[in-house]
Amino acid sequence: MPDVRIKTPNLDDIFEKWKQRAVRQDRKRMEKQFGTKGALFSLDAISAAEYVKDTLKEAAIYFAVKKTLGAVPKGKDENTVLAPRVGRETYYSFKGAGKINKENWKDEEKVPMYESIQAVSCKTCKGKGYTDDKCKTCKGTGKIEENLMVLVGEEQKKEKKLFSYPCAACYGTGNKREQCKECGGHKNLYKYEILPVPFQTVVTGVPILHSSAQTKYEKEIGEDLHKMIEEVEGIRFNEFKELESKVEASLGYMNKNIKKTISAAASDHKTYQKDKDSQITTQIYLFPMIQMFCETKKGSKFEIYSLGSGNKFMIYSNF
Ligand SMILES: [Zn+2]
Ligand SMILES: [Zn+2]
């Protein structure tokens, strides 16, 4: 088994790095807080032992995600409706409108598209709107026949005589036009498509950082790591299961907050794995994090954080 242990930075090294940076950024403030009246200001006189009041050993977890904003939903649906129903739908048009910013879009991601409305000739009536059937009244003969009773001669012999006249239901044609039940007589049905809104796709890298130290620098640290992950040394894992089983051995310490942080990060990681618009682009990094609570002789309190190993770490401070 390879050595998973990571060397936590030495407190003096962290403090030294902070000192050098602080004096570069604001020498006057350093002199005011750490200088001695009448003595020449020197960084050498400022030691961790004197100013660091308390230290916490924490940890941070980092991974990066590539998020595709405005990913176009796939596939299309279509509806075919009777002519009078076309007007019941609300249509959208993006002709000449360019790509749509998904963040401003409050509607459905797939919408009925105006340009897709299309007449489809009715198959049942072959686009005529009616069907020709035999007239039911005259059974297709075009005439109605009746027997007349005729009494013939003195004997009044009963005779039946056929009498026929044109059928009124079909005007004597024998055919009856019926409105086509399929298209309602409108000759066509109408089809329209429900298509994806043409969103603009934006791919952005998102840094994900979870730290067990309650720091206001989480966002800043995350962004820094995103830009210069090579500047900090951590231990990389392919999955959280592995990280969870090795975290204590790796850091050489453990606490409740670290445990909580790991499980929050793991659930976050899982969410991104499931999200179809996201792609996790890095391994999972585990970093030792040291939080130092400091106080100057004038009673001014500040904190210094380190992130990374003894070989490569970054520092943050509110001084
Ligand atoms: Zn029809
Ligand atoms: Zn008829």
Largest sheet data: 7 strands, antiparallel
In one word, what is the shape? rod-shaped
How much of the polypeptide forms β-strand, as a percent range? 25-35%
Give the H and E element order.
HHHEEHEEEEEEEEHEHHEEEE
Q: In whole angstroms, how far apart are the ends?
A: 42 Å
The count of β-strands is 15
Mean pLDDT score = 91
Low-confidence parts: none
The structural class is: alpha+beta
Ions and ligands = zinc ion
Estimated helix fraction: 10-25%
The radius of gyration computed from the alpha-carbon positions, rounded to a whole number of angstroms, is 43 Å
Helices, by number, come to 7
Keywords:
binds zinc ion, alpha+beta, 319 residues, 15 strands, 34% strand, 23% helix, four-stranded antiparallel β-sheet, rod-shaped
Structural write-up:
The protein has 319 residues and is of the alpha+beta class. It contains seven helices and 15 strands. The chain has helices at 11-25, 27-34, 48-51, 83-86, 218-228, 240-251, 256-274; strands at residues 52-69, 77-81, 110-112, 118-121, 130-134, 143-152, 157-166, 175-179, 188-196, 202-211, 235-237, 278-280, 284-295, 301-308, 313-317. The strands form four sheets. Strands 1, 10, 11, 12, 13, 14 and 15 form a seven-stranded antiparallel beta sheet that branches. Strands 2, 3, 4 and 9 form a four-stranded antiparallel beta sheet that branches. Helix 1 crosses helix 2 (27-34). The longest helix has 19 residues, at 256-274. The two termini are 42 Å apart. The relative contact order is 0.24. The mean pLDDT is 91. It binds zinc ion (2 copies).
